[in-house]
């Protein structure tokens, strides 16, 4: 039996289908989860996909965080279940305080959409074990509120503990402090990043590379070996 | 009905590019002498029943957990005189 990877759909989520497809291509059983259901349908891991849940009203991720499904996701994540937040999903994870810091409007005030080079800074998390430490990957990035901020003490703590999981290369596309593209919690089961690995899993589309597939093969290996 | 206002502002150390964009546009529109602009949010809450200590405590909790993200924002709760 293979592992079940759940993908949550909120009103305004856009990338749930791509995330489900990426999970399937990696060999997992993709499971759709609905924001109003507390039931996670016995999934082994959860992906919070990108988009504009609840229209980004109030703040990106601020309303989604209080949806019924998130009650269970937060509880299970604290108990060790792997959770990956991509883009809007990353914003939801910071609003839910599963990850430190917050996301703000891009410093240049424009929507950004580009192929983005990243460096994998931590290849020990549940979602990055199939990468090499320091590996450079290229995946699409598309966001309006992608500027990662946290106070200096939190940033120093993240750096010291190796919890900066991904860093932007070439350009800092949104003004994120210390070029941070993604972070992990201390346990390594909760990871959030702004760029979109689920859009880079097949050579035909996206960047023409499959650099993002490693997120999904990483988690699958971890679950199968668990 | 009593009104309570919650003002939410980005913390002073957080860069506010929207406020900066507004500030930069001002001279072009003939509004001189504005050194800095910070943009925030104002919530007007019409409260059912009396605005007593208990009601204000709940509104404070609401502001802290939902209306503001205290990682990046400060808030002020004010009761508006009728």
UniProtKB/TrEMBL annotation, chain A:
The major lineage groups are: Bacteria, Bacillati, Actinomycetota, Actinomycetes, Kitasatosporales
Instruction: Kindly give the Pfam families that the UniProt entry links to this protein.
Output: GATase_5
**Which UniProt keyword terms apply here?**
ATP-binding, Cytoplasm, Glutamine amidotransferase, Hydrolase, Ligase, Nucleotide-binding, Purine biosynthesis
Query: What HAMAP family does UniProt report for this protein, alphabetically?
Result: PurQ
Q: According to its UniProt record, which reaction does this protein catalyse?
A: N(2)-formyl-N(1)-(5-phospho-beta-D-ribosyl)glycinamide + L-glutamine + ATP + H2O = 2-formamido-N(1)-(5-O-phospho-beta-D-ribosyl)acetamidine + L-glutamate + ADP + phosphate + H(+); L-glutamine + H2O = L-glutamate + NH4(+)
Organism expressing this protein natively: Streptomyces roseolilacinus
Q: How does it assemble?
A: Part of the FGAM synthase complex composed of 1 PurL, 1 PurQ and 2 PurS subunits.
The molecule here is called Phosphoribosylformylglycinamidine synthase subunit PurQ
List all membrane-crossing ranges: none
Query: InterPro entries recorded for this chain?
Result: Class_I_gatase-like, PRibForGlyAmidine_synth_PurQ
TrEMBL record, chain B:
Entry's transmembrane regions:
none
Pathway entry: Purine metabolism; IMP biosynthesis via de novo pathway; 5-amino-1-(5-phospho-D-ribosyl)imidazole from N(2)-formyl-N(1)-(5-phospho-D-ribosyl)glycinamide: step 1/2
Q: Which UniProt keywords apply?
A: ATP-binding, Cytoplasm, Ligase, Nucleotide-binding, Purine biosynthesis
SUPFAM superfamilies from the xrefs? Answer: PurS-like
Matches recorded under Gene3D superfamilies: Phosphoribosylformylglycinamidine synthase subunit PurS
Record-level GO BP terms: 'de novo' IMP biosynthetic process
Q: Give a GO molecular function annotation for the protein.
A: ATP binding
Read off the InterPro entries from this record: PurS, PurS-like_sf
List the GO terms this entry assigns under cellular component, sorted alphabetically.
cytoplasm
> EC?
6.3.5.3
Catalytic activity, as annotated: N(2)-formyl-N(1)-(5-phospho-beta-D-ribosyl)glycinamide + L-glutamine + ATP + H2O = 2-formamido-N(1)-(5-O-phospho-beta-D-ribosyl)acetamidine + L-glutamate + ADP + phosphate + H(+)
Q: Where in the cell is it found?
A: Cytoplasm
Subunit record text: Part of the FGAM synthase complex composed of 1 PurL, 1 PurQ and 2 PurS subunits.
Q: What does this protein do?
A: Part of the phosphoribosylformylglycinamidine synthase complex involved in the purines biosynthetic pathway. Catalyzes the ATP-dependent conversion of formylglycinamide ribonucleotide (FGAR) and glutamine to yield formylglycinamidine ribonucleotide (FGAM) and glutamate. The FGAM synthase complex is composed of three subunits. PurQ produces an ammonia molecule by converting glutamine to glutamate. PurL transfers the ammonia molecule to FGAR to form FGAM in an ATP-dependent manner.
Homology family: Belongs to the PurS family.
HAMAP family hit by this protein? PurS
Q: What is this protein called?
A: Phosphoribosylformylglycinamidine synthase subunit PurS
């Amino acid at each position: 039996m293979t592992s079940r990877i759940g993908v949550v759909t909120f009103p305004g989520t856009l990338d749930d289908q791509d995330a489900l497809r990426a999970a399937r291509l990696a060999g997992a059983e993709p499971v759709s989860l609905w924001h109003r259901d507390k039931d996670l349908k016995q999934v082994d891991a959860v992906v919070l996909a990108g988009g504009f849940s609840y229209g980004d009203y109030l703040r990106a991720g601020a309303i989604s965080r209080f949806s019924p499904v998130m009650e269970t996701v937060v509880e299970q994540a604290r108990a060790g279940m792997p959770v990956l937040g991509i883009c809007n999903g990353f914003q939801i994870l910071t609003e839910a305080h599963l990850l430190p810091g917050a996301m703000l409007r891009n410093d240049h005030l424009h929507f950004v959409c580009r192929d983005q080079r990243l460096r994998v800074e931590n290849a020990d998390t549940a979602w990055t074990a199939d990468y090499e430490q320091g590996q450079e990957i290229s995946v699409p990035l598309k966001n309006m509120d992608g500027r990662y901020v946290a106070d200096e003490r939190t940033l120093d703590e993240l750096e010291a503990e190796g919890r900066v999981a991904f860093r932007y290369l070439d350009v800092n596309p949104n003004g994120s402090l210390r070029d941070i593209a993604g972070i992990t919690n201390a346990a390594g089961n909760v990871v959030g990043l702004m760029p979109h690995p689920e859009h880079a899993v097949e050579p035909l589309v996206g960047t023409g590379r499959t650099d993002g597939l490693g997120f999904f093969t990483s988690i699958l290996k971890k679950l199968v070996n668990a | 009905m009593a009104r309570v206002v919650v003002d939410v502002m980005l913390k002073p150390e957080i860069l506010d590019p929207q406020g900066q964009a507004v500030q930069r546009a001002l001279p072009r529109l003939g509004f001189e002498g504005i050194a800095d602009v910070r943009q925030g949010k104002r919530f007007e809450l019409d409260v059912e029943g009396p605005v007593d200590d208990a009601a204000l405590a709940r509104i404070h909790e609401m502001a802290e957990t939902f209306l503001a993200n205290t990682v990046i924002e400060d808030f002020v709760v004010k009761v508006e005189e009728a």
